[in-house]
Amino acid sequence: MGVFTRLYDAVLRWARHRRAPWFLGALSFAESSFFPIPPDVMLAPMSVARPDRALHLAGLTTLTSVAGGLLGYLIGVVGLELVMPVIVDTGHAGAYEMARSWFVDWGFWVVLVAGFSPIPYKIFTIAAGAMAIAWLPFVLASLLGRGARFYLVASVLAWGGPRAEPWLRRYMERIGWLTVLALVVVVLAVSL
């Protein structure tokens, strides 16, 4: 059994825990402003384990993610000097500079796309605050982008439900390594 399969099995057990929605909300909030692990890793197995609650979980994930995004925005407004060394040390300086330049060109649309994409959303929330992007469009774009992403994940996996679980487990190693490869490609593309 590979590393991603073991991780998947552990997350699936956590997803069935009675306090799992609290963990999901906390993870979603933290990921939008400072934590590196996306909430999809909990939302997906929770949607498979409880397809009847998948849309509720997507809503929870969206709202807590946008709330965390507001914290990221606040960090950008008042504490950019404090977090910039962390951004540089974690190798996200290129992504941060790219986010700043994209805000100049596309504004609202950058937040919308960043909220939906696998690009680290926290970089965009901090950059939006640092550049004093208008608050209301930031929140609306975050709600739309994050909501579209999380409702899509939850809906697809709830549709598959428990019958998708064996398929996911069988291919988890491939999915995990392809995800790592995709992240490496994105990081390399951003840094070049």
TrEMBL record:
InterPro entries, alphabetized: DedA_domain, VTT_dom
Q: Which GO terms describe its cellular component?
A: plasma membrane
The membrane-spanning stretches of this chain are 20-37, 57-87, 99-117, 123-144, 175-191
Q: List the keywords (alphabetical).
A: Membrane, Transmembrane, Transmembrane helix
Q: Which residues are in the VTT domain? A: 59-155
Q: Which PANTHER family match?
A: ALKALINE PHOSPHATASE LIKE PROTEIN, DEDA FAMILY PROTEIN
Descriptive protein name: VTT domain-containing protein
Taxonomic source organism: Spiribacter salinus M19-40
